[in-house]
């Protein structure tokens, strides 16, 4: 899996842990991630919307990673 996809999954996992399984981020939502001791902003809402829109291009491993987080359309 690509690094941007993995960052998106990490941000979604953090969001899901806080908001509950099945919760979808709003399009403008920004998730703050701690990476190597530094805080980074990830535009989770945009990533989520784009990933959903392009779901037919996801490979099985990517679909599984999303489904494991409770994403029903994966």
Could you describe the 3D structure shown?
- It contains three helices and two strands.
- Helices cover 49% and strands 14% of the residues.
- The mean pLDDT is 93.
- It has one domain (3-68).
- The protein starts with a helix and ends in a 6-residue tail after the last helix.
- Strand 1 (31-35) and strand 2 form a beta hairpin.
- Strands 1-2 form a two-stranded antiparallel ribbon.
Topology:
Layout lengths: L2 H17 L11 E5 L2 E5 L1 H10 L6 H9 L6
Quick tags:
74 residues, globular, alpha+beta, two-stranded antiparallel sheet
Q: Summarize the biggest pleated sheet.
A: 2 strands, antiparallel
Query: DSSP strand (E) fraction?
Result: 5-15%
Strands of the widest sheet, in order across it, are: 1-2
Number of domains: 1
What value does the average pLDDT take? 93
The H/E string reads HEEHH
| Helix proportion range | 40-55%
Rg of Cα set: 12 Å
Strand element count: 2
The low-pLDDT segments are none
Structural class: alpha+beta
Q: What spatial form do the alpha-carbon principal axes imply?
A: globular
Helix count equals 3
How far do the termini sit from each other?
15 Å
